[in-house]
Specification:
By secondary structure, this protein is mainly α. The chain has 28 helices and 6 strands. Keywords: Apoptosis, Endoplasmic reticulum, Glycoprotein, Membrane, Transmembrane, Transmembrane helix.
Protein backbone atom coordinates (compact mmCIF):
# COMPACT_ATOMS: atom_id res chain seq x y z
CA UNK A 1 0.00 0.00 0.00
CA UNK A 2 2.84 2.35 0.80
CA UNK A 3 4.46 1.57 -2.60
CA UNK A 4 1.21 2.44 -4.38
CA UNK A 5 0.95 5.76 -2.55
CA UNK A 6 4.55 6.55 -3.38
CA UNK A 7 3.96 5.95 -7.08
CA UNK A 8 0.94 8.27 -7.11
CA UNK A 9 2.82 11.03 -5.38
CA UNK A 10 5.78 10.67 -7.73
CA UNK A 11 3.50 10.99 -10.78
CA UNK A 12 2.02 14.17 -9.39
CA UNK A 13 5.45 15.60 -8.82
CA UNK A 14 6.50 14.77 -12.39
CA UNK A 15 3.39 16.45 -13.75
CA UNK A 16 4.20 19.63 -11.89
CA UNK A 17 1.60 19.28 -9.18
CA UNK A 18 2.68 21.05 -5.99
CA UNK A 19 1.79 18.91 -3.01
CA UNK A 20 2.85 21.48 -0.44
CA UNK A 21 2.64 21.05 3.25
CA UNK A 22 -0.65 19.14 3.18
CA UNK A 23 1.00 16.41 1.00
CA UNK A 24 -1.84 16.39 -1.49
CA UNK A 25 -4.61 16.10 1.08
CA UNK A 26 -7.41 18.65 1.11
CA UNK A 27 -9.88 19.31 3.84
CA UNK A 28 -13.46 19.84 2.71
CA UNK A 29 -15.68 21.84 4.99
CA UNK A 30 -19.35 22.66 4.81
CA UNK A 31 -20.07 26.20 5.83
CA UNK A 32 -23.81 25.78 6.12
CA UNK A 33 -23.75 23.22 8.94
CA UNK A 34 -25.31 24.42 12.13
CA UNK A 35 -23.18 25.51 15.01
CA UNK A 36 -23.85 22.40 17.11
CA UNK A 37 -22.36 20.06 14.51
CA UNK A 38 -19.31 22.28 14.04
CA UNK A 39 -18.69 22.33 17.78
CA UNK A 40 -18.85 18.53 18.01
CA UNK A 41 -16.29 18.05 15.21
CA UNK A 42 -13.85 20.71 16.38
CA UNK A 43 -11.65 18.37 18.54
CA UNK A 44 -11.34 15.90 15.64
CA UNK A 45 -10.25 18.64 13.25
CA UNK A 46 -7.64 19.83 15.67
CA UNK A 47 -6.25 16.31 15.95
CA UNK A 48 -5.99 15.94 12.16
CA UNK A 49 -4.20 19.24 11.92
CA UNK A 50 -1.67 18.06 14.48
CA UNK A 51 -0.98 14.87 12.60
CA UNK A 52 -0.42 16.73 9.34
CA UNK A 53 1.97 19.19 10.90
CA UNK A 54 3.98 16.48 12.58
CA UNK A 55 4.35 14.31 9.47
CA UNK A 56 5.91 16.90 7.09
CA UNK A 57 9.17 15.01 6.48
CA UNK A 58 7.75 11.63 5.51
CA UNK A 59 7.95 12.18 1.71
CA UNK A 60 11.01 14.42 1.55
CA UNK A 61 13.24 11.80 -0.14
CA UNK A 62 10.63 11.13 -2.80
CA UNK A 63 10.29 14.84 -3.55
CA UNK A 64 14.03 15.27 -3.96
CA UNK A 65 14.21 12.33 -6.36
CA UNK A 66 11.34 13.67 -8.45
CA UNK A 67 12.87 17.15 -8.54
CA UNK A 68 16.12 15.76 -9.96
CA UNK A 69 14.27 13.86 -12.67
CA UNK A 70 12.30 16.98 -13.64
CA UNK A 71 15.50 19.03 -13.93
CA UNK A 72 17.04 16.43 -16.25
CA UNK A 73 13.96 16.50 -18.48
CA UNK A 74 13.99 20.32 -18.71
CA UNK A 75 17.71 20.38 -19.57
CA UNK A 76 17.23 17.78 -22.31
CA UNK A 77 14.37 19.79 -23.80
CA UNK A 78 16.45 22.99 -23.86
CA UNK A 79 19.32 21.17 -25.56
CA UNK A 80 16.96 19.84 -28.26
CA UNK A 81 15.54 23.31 -28.94
CA UNK A 82 19.02 24.82 -29.19
CA UNK A 83 20.09 22.25 -31.80
CA UNK A 84 17.05 22.96 -34.02
CA UNK A 85 16.87 26.74 -33.59
CA UNK A 86 19.24 27.37 -36.53
CA UNK A 87 17.20 25.42 -39.10
CA UNK A 88 15.78 27.54 -41.97
CA UNK A 89 12.25 26.76 -43.14
CA UNK A 90 10.70 28.17 -46.31
CA UNK A 91 6.92 28.51 -46.11
CA UNK A 92 6.43 28.59 -49.90
CA UNK A 93 5.78 32.32 -50.02
CA UNK A 94 9.37 33.45 -50.08
CA UNK A 95 9.49 33.93 -46.26
CA UNK A 96 11.91 32.00 -43.99
CA UNK A 97 11.42 30.91 -40.42
CA UNK A 98 13.73 29.40 -37.79
CA UNK A 99 15.88 32.26 -36.53
CA UNK A 100 14.79 34.14 -33.46
CA UNK A 101 14.48 37.48 -35.22
CA UNK A 102 13.52 36.17 -38.70
CA UNK A 103 16.13 38.31 -40.43
CA UNK A 104 19.05 35.90 -41.01
CA UNK A 105 20.09 35.79 -44.63
CA UNK A 106 21.40 32.24 -44.40
CA UNK A 107 21.42 29.41 -41.87
CA UNK A 108 23.28 26.18 -41.37
CA UNK A 109 21.22 22.99 -41.39
CA UNK A 110 23.00 19.67 -41.57
CA UNK A 111 26.15 21.35 -42.84
CA UNK A 112 24.43 22.99 -45.85
CA UNK A 113 23.87 26.68 -46.38
CA UNK A 114 20.33 27.71 -47.41
CA UNK A 115 20.10 31.15 -48.99
CA UNK A 116 16.96 33.30 -48.85
CA UNK A 117 15.17 33.51 -52.20
CA UNK A 118 14.03 36.94 -53.41
CA UNK A 119 10.70 37.41 -55.23
CA UNK A 120 10.99 38.34 -58.89
CA UNK A 121 9.26 41.66 -59.56
CA UNK A 122 6.41 41.54 -62.03
CA UNK A 123 6.76 43.82 -65.00
CA UNK A 124 4.01 46.44 -65.08
CA UNK A 125 1.77 46.25 -68.11
CA UNK A 126 1.30 49.52 -69.96
CA UNK A 127 -2.17 51.00 -69.50
CA UNK A 128 -4.17 51.21 -72.72
CA UNK A 129 -7.17 53.53 -72.93
CA UNK A 130 -10.29 52.95 -74.99
CA UNK A 131 -9.31 55.76 -77.35
CA UNK A 132 -5.83 54.33 -77.90
CA UNK A 133 -7.17 50.85 -78.63
CA UNK A 134 -9.84 52.23 -80.96
CA UNK A 135 -7.27 54.28 -82.87
CA UNK A 136 -5.34 51.10 -83.71
CA UNK A 137 -8.30 49.49 -85.50
CA UNK A 138 -7.47 49.47 -89.21
CA UNK A 139 -10.53 49.90 -91.42
CA UNK A 140 -8.96 48.06 -94.36
CA UNK A 141 -8.16 45.12 -92.11
CA UNK A 142 -11.75 45.14 -90.85
CA UNK A 143 -13.07 45.09 -94.42
CA UNK A 144 -10.94 42.05 -95.28
CA UNK A 145 -12.02 40.32 -92.07
CA UNK A 146 -15.73 40.90 -92.74
CA UNK A 147 -15.44 39.65 -96.31
CA UNK A 148 -13.66 36.56 -95.07
CA UNK A 149 -16.19 35.61 -92.38
CA UNK A 150 -19.10 36.37 -94.71
CA UNK A 151 -17.71 33.85 -97.19
CA UNK A 152 -16.58 31.28 -94.62
CA UNK A 153 -19.89 31.25 -92.72
CA UNK A 154 -22.20 32.20 -95.54
CA UNK A 155 -25.31 30.55 -94.13
CA UNK A 156 -24.45 30.92 -90.44
CA UNK A 157 -25.18 34.52 -89.55
CA UNK A 158 -25.05 33.85 -85.84
CA UNK A 159 -21.42 32.74 -86.16
CA UNK A 160 -20.66 35.73 -88.37
CA UNK A 161 -21.94 38.08 -85.69
CA UNK A 162 -19.97 36.27 -82.98
CA UNK A 163 -16.80 36.58 -85.04
CA UNK A 164 -17.63 40.25 -85.58
CA UNK A 165 -17.77 40.70 -81.80
CA UNK A 166 -14.53 38.72 -81.41
CA UNK A 167 -12.75 41.10 -83.77
CA UNK A 168 -13.52 44.07 -81.53
CA UNK A 169 -12.87 41.94 -78.48
CA UNK A 170 -9.28 41.41 -79.63
CA UNK A 171 -8.96 45.08 -80.49
CA UNK A 172 -9.92 46.13 -76.95
CA UNK A 173 -8.36 43.17 -75.11
CA UNK A 174 -5.62 45.32 -73.56
CA UNK A 175 -8.09 47.81 -72.10
CA UNK A 176 -8.38 46.96 -68.43
CA UNK A 177 -11.49 47.40 -66.34
CA UNK A 178 -9.85 50.36 -64.60
CA UNK A 179 -9.70 52.15 -67.95
CA UNK A 180 -13.34 51.35 -68.69
CA UNK A 181 -15.28 51.09 -65.40
CA UNK A 182 -18.55 50.92 -67.28
CA UNK A 183 -20.78 50.38 -64.24
CA UNK A 184 -19.49 53.50 -62.56
CA UNK A 185 -19.63 55.48 -65.80
CA UNK A 186 -23.28 54.62 -66.46
CA UNK A 187 -24.32 55.22 -62.86
CA UNK A 188 -22.71 58.65 -62.73
CA UNK A 189 -23.42 59.87 -66.28
CA UNK A 190 -26.41 61.87 -67.40
CA UNK A 191 -28.50 60.38 -70.20
CA UNK A 192 -27.22 63.08 -72.55
CA UNK A 193 -23.67 61.77 -72.09
CA UNK A 194 -24.60 58.08 -72.13
CA UNK A 195 -25.31 58.28 -75.84
CA UNK A 196 -21.66 58.52 -76.84
CA UNK A 197 -20.33 55.78 -74.53
CA UNK A 198 -18.11 54.25 -75.92
CA UNK A 199 -18.96 54.64 -79.60
CA UNK A 200 -17.57 58.16 -79.80
CA UNK A 201 -14.06 56.64 -79.75
CA UNK A 202 -14.66 54.66 -82.96
CA UNK A 203 -13.54 56.29 -86.21
CA UNK A 204 -16.13 57.18 -88.84
CA UNK A 205 -14.66 54.74 -91.37
CA UNK A 206 -14.76 51.80 -88.98
CA UNK A 207 -18.27 52.71 -87.85
CA UNK A 208 -19.62 53.03 -91.40
CA UNK A 209 -18.00 49.77 -92.51
CA UNK A 210 -19.50 48.00 -89.51
CA UNK A 211 -23.08 49.26 -89.83
CA UNK A 212 -23.10 48.66 -93.59
CA UNK A 213 -22.14 45.06 -92.96
CA UNK A 214 -24.69 44.74 -90.12
CA UNK A 215 -27.41 46.08 -92.39
CA UNK A 216 -27.03 42.98 -94.55
CA UNK A 217 -27.71 40.58 -91.66
CA UNK A 218 -31.21 39.23 -91.09
CA UNK A 219 -33.54 40.78 -88.52
CA UNK A 220 -33.84 37.56 -86.49
CA UNK A 221 -30.08 37.04 -86.34
CA UNK A 222 -29.57 40.60 -85.13
CA UNK A 223 -32.28 40.13 -82.51
CA UNK A 224 -30.56 37.06 -81.10
CA UNK A 225 -27.23 38.88 -81.15
CA UNK A 226 -28.63 41.88 -79.25
CA UNK A 227 -30.10 39.59 -76.62
CA UNK A 228 -26.79 37.73 -76.27
CA UNK A 229 -24.88 41.00 -75.96
CA UNK A 230 -27.24 42.32 -73.28
CA UNK A 231 -26.97 39.04 -71.39
CA UNK A 232 -23.17 39.26 -71.46
CA UNK A 233 -23.17 42.79 -70.08
CA UNK A 234 -25.72 41.99 -67.38
CA UNK A 235 -23.82 38.83 -66.45
CA UNK A 236 -20.75 40.95 -65.84
CA UNK A 237 -22.90 43.22 -63.68
CA UNK A 238 -24.12 40.27 -61.62
CA UNK A 239 -20.56 39.00 -61.27
CA UNK A 240 -19.47 42.25 -59.67
CA UNK A 241 -22.51 42.67 -57.48
CA UNK A 242 -22.76 39.04 -56.40
CA UNK A 243 -25.28 36.49 -57.54
CA UNK A 244 -28.81 37.11 -56.35
CA UNK A 245 -30.07 34.98 -53.48
CA UNK A 246 -31.86 31.85 -54.52
CA UNK A 247 -30.44 31.87 -58.04
CA UNK A 248 -29.31 28.37 -58.92
CA UNK A 249 -28.59 28.97 -62.59
CA UNK A 250 -24.91 29.29 -63.41
CA UNK A 251 -24.23 32.08 -65.88
CA UNK A 252 -21.09 32.03 -67.98
CA UNK A 253 -19.20 35.15 -67.02
CA UNK A 254 -17.48 37.44 -69.48
CA UNK A 255 -14.25 39.17 -68.44
CA UNK A 256 -14.69 42.87 -67.77
CA UNK A 257 -11.93 43.83 -70.16
CA UNK A 258 -13.97 42.55 -73.12
CA UNK A 259 -17.01 44.63 -72.19
CA UNK A 260 -15.72 47.56 -74.24
CA UNK A 261 -16.22 45.47 -77.35
CA UNK A 262 -19.68 44.32 -76.21
CA UNK A 263 -20.83 47.90 -75.74
CA UNK A 264 -19.37 48.93 -79.10
CA UNK A 265 -20.98 46.20 -81.20
CA UNK A 266 -24.31 46.42 -79.34
CA UNK A 267 -24.49 50.18 -79.91
CA UNK A 268 -23.80 49.67 -83.61
CA UNK A 269 -26.61 47.14 -84.00
CA UNK A 270 -29.15 49.20 -82.05
CA UNK A 271 -28.41 52.33 -84.05
CA UNK A 272 -28.62 50.53 -87.38
CA UNK A 273 -31.60 48.30 -86.56
CA UNK A 274 -33.45 49.94 -83.65
CA UNK A 275 -36.66 47.98 -84.30
CA UNK A 276 -34.87 44.91 -82.98
CA UNK A 277 -35.32 46.30 -79.48
CA UNK A 278 -39.11 46.42 -79.90
CA UNK A 279 -39.14 42.78 -81.00
CA UNK A 280 -37.36 41.84 -77.77
CA UNK A 281 -39.76 43.80 -75.56
CA UNK A 282 -41.93 40.79 -74.57
CA UNK A 283 -38.84 38.93 -73.35
CA UNK A 284 -37.57 41.96 -71.46
CA UNK A 285 -40.93 42.55 -69.77
CA UNK A 286 -41.34 38.94 -68.68
CA UNK A 287 -37.78 38.18 -67.55
CA UNK A 288 -36.57 39.71 -64.28
CA UNK A 289 -33.02 39.57 -65.65
CA UNK A 290 -33.65 42.83 -67.51
CA UNK A 291 -35.52 44.61 -64.72
CA UNK A 292 -34.61 46.22 -61.42
CA UNK A 293 -32.83 49.32 -60.23
CA UNK A 294 -29.36 47.89 -60.78
CA UNK A 295 -30.11 47.03 -64.44
CA UNK A 296 -31.76 50.38 -65.21
CA UNK A 297 -28.63 52.30 -66.36
CA UNK A 298 -27.78 49.53 -68.83
CA UNK A 299 -31.31 49.38 -70.24
CA UNK A 300 -31.57 53.16 -70.55
CA UNK A 301 -28.20 53.20 -72.31
CA UNK A 302 -29.52 50.63 -74.80
CA UNK A 303 -32.69 52.66 -75.43
CA UNK A 304 -30.67 55.84 -76.02
CA UNK A 305 -28.70 53.99 -78.70
CA UNK A 306 -31.95 52.98 -80.39
CA UNK A 307 -33.12 56.62 -80.18
CA UNK A 308 -30.14 57.61 -82.30
CA UNK A 309 -31.50 55.43 -85.06
CA UNK A 310 -35.23 56.01 -84.61
CA UNK A 311 -36.87 58.41 -82.16
CA UNK A 312 -40.17 56.53 -82.33
CA UNK A 313 -38.49 53.34 -81.09
CA UNK A 314 -37.02 55.28 -78.19
CA UNK A 315 -40.42 56.62 -77.12
CA UNK A 316 -42.04 53.23 -77.66
CA UNK A 317 -39.53 51.58 -75.32
CA UNK A 318 -39.86 54.41 -72.81
CA UNK A 319 -43.64 54.01 -72.66
CA UNK A 320 -43.84 50.22 -72.72
CA UNK A 321 -40.76 49.31 -70.67
CA UNK A 322 -39.75 52.22 -68.43
CA UNK A 323 -43.06 53.93 -67.63
CA UNK A 324 -44.48 50.89 -65.77
CA UNK A 325 -41.56 51.19 -63.35
CA UNK A 326 -42.76 54.66 -62.37
CA UNK A 327 -46.27 53.42 -61.64
CA UNK A 328 -44.93 50.69 -59.36
CA UNK A 329 -44.15 51.98 -55.86
CA UNK A 330 -41.80 49.08 -55.15
CA UNK A 331 -39.62 49.78 -58.19
CA UNK A 332 -39.48 53.55 -58.14
CA UNK A 333 -36.95 55.68 -56.31
CA UNK A 334 -35.62 59.20 -56.94
CA UNK A 335 -32.54 58.04 -58.85
CA UNK A 336 -34.53 55.74 -61.14
CA UNK A 337 -37.22 58.37 -61.65
CA UNK A 338 -34.59 60.94 -62.57
CA UNK A 339 -32.97 58.67 -65.18
CA UNK A 340 -36.31 57.76 -66.74
CA UNK A 341 -37.38 61.41 -66.86
CA UNK A 342 -34.07 62.46 -68.40
CA UNK A 343 -34.70 60.10 -71.30
CA UNK A 344 -38.25 61.40 -71.84
CA UNK A 345 -37.04 65.00 -71.72
CA UNK A 346 -34.35 64.23 -74.26
CA UNK A 347 -36.82 62.55 -76.63
CA UNK A 348 -39.38 65.39 -76.66
CA UNK A 349 -36.74 68.15 -76.81
CA UNK A 350 -34.89 66.94 -79.90
CA UNK A 351 -35.32 69.02 -83.08
CA UNK A 352 -38.59 68.29 -84.89
CA UNK A 353 -39.42 65.73 -82.20
CA UNK A 354 -43.13 66.64 -82.04
CA UNK A 355 -43.67 66.26 -85.78
CA UNK A 356 -41.74 62.99 -85.88
CA UNK A 357 -43.66 61.53 -82.94
CA UNK A 358 -47.06 62.65 -84.22
CA UNK A 359 -46.41 61.08 -87.62
CA UNK A 360 -45.26 57.83 -86.03
CA UNK A 361 -47.95 57.48 -83.35
CA UNK A 362 -48.61 53.89 -84.46
CA UNK A 363 -45.74 51.43 -84.87
CA UNK A 364 -46.30 47.98 -86.36
CA UNK A 365 -50.01 48.15 -85.61
CA UNK A 366 -49.49 49.16 -81.98
CA UNK A 367 -49.91 52.64 -80.56
CA UNK A 368 -46.74 54.23 -79.23
CA UNK A 369 -48.70 55.81 -76.36
CA UNK A 370 -51.78 53.62 -75.77
CA UNK A 371 -54.72 54.80 -73.61
CA UNK A 372 -53.50 52.72 -70.66
CA UNK A 373 -50.16 54.55 -70.73
CA UNK A 374 -51.96 57.89 -71.00
CA UNK A 375 -53.85 57.10 -67.81
CA UNK A 376 -50.59 56.33 -65.98
CA UNK A 377 -49.07 59.57 -67.27
CA UNK A 378 -52.14 61.57 -66.28
CA UNK A 379 -52.12 60.28 -62.71
CA UNK A 380 -48.37 60.81 -62.30
CA UNK A 381 -48.55 64.32 -63.75
CA UNK A 382 -51.60 65.43 -61.75
CA UNK A 383 -51.29 63.97 -58.24
CA UNK A 384 -52.96 65.31 -55.13
CA UNK A 385 -51.34 68.48 -53.70
CA UNK A 386 -49.84 66.50 -50.82
CA UNK A 387 -48.28 63.98 -53.21
CA UNK A 388 -46.50 66.49 -55.42
CA UNK A 389 -42.72 66.09 -55.64
CA UNK A 390 -39.90 67.87 -57.44
CA UNK A 391 -40.28 65.58 -60.44
CA UNK A 392 -43.96 66.56 -60.89
CA UNK A 393 -43.06 69.76 -62.72
CA UNK A 394 -40.85 67.79 -65.08
CA UNK A 395 -43.73 65.45 -65.86
CA UNK A 396 -45.95 68.46 -66.51
CA UNK A 397 -43.42 69.62 -69.11
CA UNK A 398 -43.38 66.38 -71.13
CA UNK A 399 -47.06 65.45 -70.66
CA UNK A 400 -48.58 67.68 -73.39
CA UNK A 401 -46.44 66.17 -76.16
CA UNK A 402 -47.04 62.62 -74.99
CA UNK A 403 -50.76 63.33 -74.70
CA UNK A 404 -50.87 64.60 -78.28
CA UNK A 405 -49.19 61.43 -79.49
CA UNK A 406 -51.74 59.36 -77.56
CA UNK A 407 -54.72 61.16 -79.14
CA UNK A 408 -53.54 61.00 -82.75
CA UNK A 409 -56.08 59.21 -84.98
CA UNK A 410 -58.10 59.92 -88.10
CA UNK A 411 -61.57 61.34 -87.28
CA UNK A 412 -64.27 58.72 -87.63
CA UNK A 413 -61.78 55.89 -88.04
CA UNK A 414 -61.92 52.60 -86.20
CA UNK A 415 -58.80 53.56 -84.26
CA UNK A 416 -60.44 56.80 -83.12
CA UNK A 417 -63.52 54.95 -81.89
CA UNK A 418 -61.40 52.50 -79.94
CA UNK A 419 -59.18 55.01 -78.18
CA UNK A 420 -62.05 57.40 -77.35
CA UNK A 421 -64.04 54.66 -75.68
CA UNK A 422 -61.03 53.45 -73.70
CA UNK A 423 -60.10 56.98 -72.62
CA UNK A 424 -63.70 57.82 -71.72
CA UNK A 425 -63.91 54.93 -69.27
CA UNK A 426 -60.87 55.88 -67.17
CA UNK A 427 -61.38 59.64 -67.56
CA UNK A 428 -64.92 59.63 -66.18
CA UNK A 429 -63.71 57.73 -63.11
CA UNK A 430 -60.86 60.16 -62.51
CA UNK A 431 -63.19 63.18 -62.72
CA UNK A 432 -64.80 62.51 -59.35
CA UNK A 433 -61.66 61.60 -57.36
CA UNK A 434 -61.52 65.01 -55.71
CA UNK A 435 -58.09 66.05 -56.99
CA UNK A 436 -58.55 69.50 -58.60
CA UNK A 437 -55.88 69.25 -61.30
CA UNK A 438 -56.77 65.65 -62.09
CA UNK A 439 -60.48 66.53 -62.31
CA UNK A 440 -59.76 69.34 -64.75
CA UNK A 441 -57.61 67.16 -67.02
CA UNK A 442 -59.98 64.18 -66.89
CA UNK A 443 -62.95 66.45 -67.69
CA UNK A 444 -61.18 67.80 -70.76
CA UNK A 445 -60.40 64.28 -71.93
CA UNK A 446 -64.05 63.29 -71.44
CA UNK A 447 -65.23 66.27 -73.48
CA UNK A 448 -62.74 65.41 -76.22
CA UNK A 449 -64.07 61.85 -76.39
CA UNK A 450 -67.67 63.09 -76.68
CA UNK A 451 -66.81 65.44 -79.53
CA UNK A 452 -64.81 62.82 -81.45
CA UNK A 453 -67.13 59.84 -81.12
CA UNK A 454 -70.96 59.97 -80.76
CA UNK A 455 -70.86 56.44 -79.32
CA UNK A 456 -69.21 57.88 -76.22
CA UNK A 457 -72.57 59.45 -75.26
CA UNK A 458 -74.09 55.99 -75.11
CA UNK A 459 -71.08 54.71 -73.17
CA UNK A 460 -71.49 57.58 -70.72
CA UNK A 461 -75.18 56.76 -70.31
CA UNK A 462 -74.35 53.11 -69.57
CA UNK A 463 -71.93 53.93 -66.73
CA UNK A 464 -73.87 56.92 -65.37
CA UNK A 465 -75.25 55.37 -62.17
CA UNK A 466 -71.76 54.24 -61.17
CA UNK A 467 -70.37 57.72 -61.81
CA UNK A 468 -73.05 60.18 -60.70
CA UNK A 469 -70.63 62.75 -59.26
CA UNK A 470 -68.44 62.65 -62.36
CA UNK A 471 -71.49 62.95 -64.62
CA UNK A 472 -72.64 66.05 -62.76
CA UNK A 473 -69.25 67.70 -63.35
CA UNK A 474 -69.34 66.78 -67.05
CA UNK A 475 -72.90 68.12 -67.51
CA UNK A 476 -71.93 71.41 -65.86
CA UNK A 477 -68.90 71.63 -68.15
CA UNK A 478 -71.07 70.93 -71.20
CA UNK A 479 -73.42 73.69 -70.12
CA UNK A 480 -70.67 76.24 -69.54
CA UNK A 481 -68.91 75.39 -72.82
CA UNK A 482 -72.02 74.83 -74.91
CA UNK A 483 -70.97 77.08 -77.78
CA UNK A 484 -67.59 75.43 -78.17
CA UNK A 485 -68.96 71.93 -77.83
CA UNK A 486 -71.82 72.48 -80.28
CA UNK A 487 -69.35 73.80 -82.85
CA UNK A 488 -66.94 70.87 -82.45
CA UNK A 489 -69.34 68.05 -81.67
CA UNK A 490 -70.73 65.46 -84.08
CA UNK A 491 -74.25 66.76 -83.55
CA UNK A 492 -76.67 67.59 -80.78
CA UNK A 493 -79.01 64.63 -81.11
CA UNK A 494 -76.71 62.11 -79.33
CA UNK A 495 -76.35 64.59 -76.47
CA UNK A 496 -80.13 65.03 -76.18
CA UNK A 497 -80.69 61.27 -76.11
CA UNK A 498 -78.04 60.80 -73.42
CA UNK A 499 -79.37 63.64 -71.26
CA UNK A 500 -82.96 62.38 -71.43
CA UNK A 501 -81.83 58.89 -70.45
CA UNK A 502 -79.71 60.23 -67.59
CA UNK A 503 -82.62 62.34 -66.33
CA UNK A 504 -84.99 59.35 -66.29
CA UNK A 505 -82.42 57.14 -64.56
CA UNK A 506 -81.97 59.81 -61.91
CA UNK A 507 -85.71 59.90 -61.22
CA UNK A 508 -85.86 56.12 -60.79
CA UNK A 509 -82.78 56.07 -58.59
CA UNK A 510 -84.20 58.75 -56.28
CA UNK A 511 -87.12 56.49 -55.42
CA UNK A 512 -84.85 53.75 -54.09
CA UNK A 513 -81.88 55.66 -52.63
CA UNK A 514 -81.76 56.48 -48.91
CA UNK A 515 -78.33 58.11 -48.78
CA UNK A 516 -78.78 61.88 -48.47
CA UNK A 517 -75.56 62.78 -50.30
CA UNK A 518 -76.39 60.55 -53.26
CA UNK A 519 -79.93 61.92 -53.37
CA UNK A 520 -78.54 65.45 -53.53
CA UNK A 521 -76.21 64.50 -56.39
CA UNK A 522 -79.03 62.84 -58.35
CA UNK A 523 -81.23 65.91 -57.93
CA UNK A 524 -78.40 68.16 -59.14
CA UNK A 525 -77.96 65.97 -62.22
CA UNK A 526 -81.68 66.20 -62.93
CA UNK A 527 -81.65 69.96 -62.55
CA UNK A 528 -78.70 70.63 -64.87
CA UNK A 529 -79.89 68.05 -67.40
CA UNK A 530 -83.21 69.86 -67.73
CA UNK A 531 -81.45 73.20 -68.14
CA UNK A 532 -79.19 71.86 -70.86
CA UNK A 533 -82.08 70.11 -72.62
CA UNK A 534 -84.01 73.37 -72.57
CA UNK A 535 -81.16 75.19 -74.25
CA UNK A 536 -80.93 72.47 -76.87
CA UNK A 537 -84.68 72.73 -77.60
CA UNK A 538 -84.48 76.53 -77.71
CA UNK A 539 -81.64 76.31 -80.18
CA UNK A 540 -83.57 74.00 -82.49
CA UNK A 541 -86.63 76.31 -82.36
CA UNK A 542 -84.53 79.30 -83.33
CA UNK A 543 -83.06 77.44 -86.26
CA UNK A 544 -86.50 76.46 -87.55
CA UNK A 545 -87.78 80.01 -87.16
CA UNK A 546 -84.85 81.41 -89.07
CA UNK A 547 -85.40 78.93 -91.87
CA UNK A 548 -89.08 79.86 -92.16
CA UNK A 549 -88.26 83.56 -92.15
CA UNK A 550 -85.72 83.03 -94.88
CA UNK A 551 -88.18 81.16 -97.08
CA UNK A 552 -90.91 83.77 -96.49
CA UNK A 553 -88.60 86.62 -97.41
CA UNK A 554 -87.51 84.88 -100.57
CA UNK A 555 -91.07 84.16 -101.70
CA UNK A 556 -92.23 87.69 -100.80
CA UNK A 557 -89.44 89.18 -102.82
CA UNK A 558 -90.52 87.12 -105.77
CA UNK A 559 -94.14 88.26 -105.54
CA UNK A 560 -93.30 91.92 -105.40
CA UNK A 561 -91.15 91.54 -108.45
CA UNK A 562 -92.30 93.54 -111.46
CA UNK A 563 -92.11 90.55 -113.71
CA UNK A 564 -94.42 88.15 -111.89
CA UNK A 565 -95.11 86.16 -115.00
CA UNK A 566 -91.46 85.39 -115.46
CA UNK A 567 -91.25 83.95 -111.96
CA UNK A 568 -90.12 80.35 -112.02
CA UNK A 569 -91.37 78.89 -108.74
CA UNK A 570 -89.58 75.60 -109.30
CA UNK A 571 -86.31 77.40 -109.80
CA UNK A 572 -86.92 79.46 -106.68
CA UNK A 573 -87.60 76.40 -104.57
CA UNK A 574 -84.49 74.73 -105.95
CA UNK A 575 -82.40 77.73 -104.94
CA UNK A 576 -83.92 77.77 -101.46
CA UNK A 577 -83.32 74.03 -101.08
CA UNK A 578 -79.71 74.45 -102.13
CA UNK A 579 -79.27 77.22 -99.61
CA UNK A 580 -80.72 75.05 -96.86
CA UNK A 581 -78.33 72.21 -97.65
CA UNK A 582 -75.35 74.51 -97.55
CA UNK A 583 -76.44 76.02 -94.26
CA UNK A 584 -73.87 75.42 -91.50
CA UNK A 585 -76.09 74.66 -88.53
CA UNK A 586 -73.19 74.44 -86.11
CA UNK A 587 -71.97 77.87 -87.07
CA UNK A 588 -75.48 79.21 -86.89
CA UNK A 589 -75.90 77.90 -83.34
CA UNK A 590 -72.67 79.52 -82.33
CA UNK A 591 -73.72 82.82 -83.90
CA UNK A 592 -77.00 82.73 -82.02
CA UNK A 593 -75.07 82.82 -78.75
CA UNK A 594 -77.07 80.02 -77.19
CA UNK A 595 -74.74 79.57 -74.25
Amino acid sequence: MEDYDSILIEEKLLNGVNIGEDHGWQTVSYQKKNKKQSLKKQPEDDWNAGVESSGGDVFRSIEEHAEERRKRIVEAQKLYEAENSTAVIDNGNGEEYGSSDGENAAAVSGGAVVEKKSKPKKAKKPKVTVAEAAAKIDNSDLVVFLVDISASYEKQEDIQLMRFADYFGRAFAKVSSSQFPWMKILRESAVEKMVDIPLSQISEDVYKTSIDWLNQRSFDALGSFVLWSLDSILADLVQHQGASKGSKKVVQQVPSKSQVAMFVVLAMVLRRKPDVLISLLPIMNENAKYQGQDKLPVMIWAITQACQGDLIVGLFMWVHFLLPMLSSKSNSNPQARDLILQLAERIVSLPKARAILMNGAVRKGERVVPPSALEVLMRITFPSPSARIKATERFEAVYPTLKEVALVASPGSKAMKQITQQIMLFAIKAVAEGVPELTREASELSMWCLTQNPDCYKLWDNVYLDNVEASLIIIKKLSSEFKVHSAKGPGLDPLKVALNSIRLKSEKALASVDDAARQASLKEVQKHSKILLGRLSHGNGCVKALLLIGITVAVGAAFVSKDLQSLDLKKLLAVVSKDLQSLDLKKLLADLNLA
